[in-house]
């Protein structure tokens, strides 16, 4: 193994380290984005759970009135 092979292997290892770090940073960013999105939509899901039966009741009431 000559010196250039050794140097090129060191460069490749360095590039792999950089790529692994970038991958870890991207994964952390995706996790934080997912948490932010879930946090943003949480009140909407709670409101939907509360309003869903009310919407069903109103829809049934309107249909009942229409087809009397």
Fold and architecture overview:
The longest helix has 64 residues, at 3-66. The protein has 68 residues and is mainly α. The N and C termini lie far apart (92 Å). It has one helix at residues 3-66. It is rod-shaped, with a radius of gyration of 29 Å. 0% of the residues are buried.
User: Based on helices, strands and strand pairing, what is the structural class?
Assistant: mainly alpha
Q: How large, in whole angstroms, is the Cα Rg?
A: 29 Å
Instruction: List low-confidence stretches.
Output: none
Q: What portion of residues belong to β-strands?
A: under 5%
Number of helices: 1
Strands, total number:
0
- Helix fraction, binned, reads over 70%
Helix and strand run: H
Mean pLDDT equals 87
Shape: rod-shaped
How is the topology of this model organized?
Blueprint: H1 3-66
Quickly list its features.
single chain; 68 residues; mainly alpha; 1 helix; 0% strand
Summarize the structure.
The chain has 68 residues and is mainly α. The chain is 94% helix and 0% strand.
């Amino acid at each position: 193994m000559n010196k250039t092979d050794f140097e090129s292997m060191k460069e490749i290892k360095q590039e792999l380290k950089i790529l692994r770090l970038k991958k870890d940073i991207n994964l952390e960013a995706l996790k934080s984005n997912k948490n932010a999105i879930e946090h943003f939509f949480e009140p909407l899901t709670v409101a939907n759970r509360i309003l869903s039966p009310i919407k069903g009741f109103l829809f049934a009431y309107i249909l009942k009135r229409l087809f009397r």
